[in-house]
Each structure stands twice: as C-alpha cells, then as structure tokens.
Predict the structure.
Amino acid sequence: MGGLFSRWRVRYFSLQLVLESNIKEIQALEEFREKNQRLQKLWVGRLILYSSVLYLFTCLIVYLWYLPDEFTARLAMTLPFFAFPLIIWSIRTVLIFFFSKRTERNSKFNSNF
C-alpha cells in the first residue's frame, strides 16, 4: 500500500513540474508576442510617418520648381506620385506579414503540446 502512494506522489510532483514548465513557456510566448506586436506597430508607424513626410515634401518641391508647362510632361512627372502610395502600402503589407510569420514560427518552435 505504501508503494502505491509513493508512486502517486512521484507522479504528482513530476506532473506539477511539467505544468510549471508549461506555464513558464506560455508566459515566454506571450511576452514575445507582445514585444513583436510593439515592434510591428513601431515599424509600420515609422514607415507611414516618414513616407508621408517624404511624399508631401517631394510633391511640394516638384510643384514649385520642376513642374513643366506641357500637359504630357506634367502627366509623366506626376505618375510616380500615383505609384508611391501603392509601393508604401505593399511595404506595409510585407512588414505585417513578416511580423505575423515571426510570431507564428516562434510559437510553433517553442510549443511541446
């Protein structure tokens, strides 16, 4: 009878250790996810801010100094200004994809469940 209780007690302690290690792992994953989300917001925010300032500054300079008089030349000069927001949007999408894959990869790599 004593052997039965001692086996149960060893299992209980080993189960407790496994649960504690799982809790620590979950906490580490949550901390990484929160850090990754903060970095994502920081990078995307900086991208939007810097690209907006650059876009407005460049539009102002082109409008004041370099805009030609002919319509076709004006159209050719303004085409990059229509493409720039699409480029920034695609870079933003790539950044979001990169950070989500990074979080997903880390959670798959560290999980033993």
